[in-house]
Amino acid sequence: MLLSSIFLWFNISSIIVLSLFKSKSHISNHNNVNLIKSALIQLSLIFGITLTLTNLIKIGFKIDADSHIWTFVKAKLGLPIDALPFETALYICHGAFAFIDNGFFDRTTTFGMLPLYCIVVAIVVGFVLKYLFLNYYFGAKQLSLETKIVPEQQNEFFNESIIFLIGQSILTGIMAILTLRMKYVWFPQIAIIASHGLKIFDKWIGKYPKYVVMIGIIWLISTKQFEIYQQQIANEQVCKKKGEGICIN
Hints:
Elements: H1 6-21, H2 24-28, H3 32-61, H4 67-77, H5 86-93, H6 102-110, H7 113-138, H8 140-147, H9 152-157, H10 160-178, H11 183-197, H12 202-205, H13 207-242
């Protein structure tokens, strides 16, 4: 079942495509229109490769054991389903697949990580929508003349990798809200994107003082999360001793 996982092949496809497209000369000569086009082309290739590889693995290994996952998603969203398989019922009843806890948002908001993440996501999504809108109404040629070359500082903030990562984090965030265990995938993405937002302070405090600030924030968040992780590990050990499986709060 792991071999046919869409998430697994999505990440593998992402590494392949981003590695092929990564080039300093390619990025530095981008204007805003070409930057968006390049990011959309990469996303299209990633989705195409992901679906192709997933289907090939399913056909090659005759895997059809993940159909209950889609039933699980429908059940979580409250969509009508014909029948509820036993495997899906197990997922729904297990605490690890419950909706995300409010404590996660409290802990990530305390030191500003989640708000900064949301700000960066809003800025980048707005950037993408803006140039897609302008490109649709004014055409690529005229828009290219108007935007010309992106300034170096703006190019460092708005790049293909961060646009892709934010798109992936939005999808992961939706899954994490619906399924508690996915927060362990979403949290690192929140941290990376939030730290990317600190680039705006480079011209005021410099690169290295910014790193000191980031290390301090990481230390504060780690100490705050440590007690929670200890409690979760203790719960897992208790559940294993009782033979009840693994509990994730």
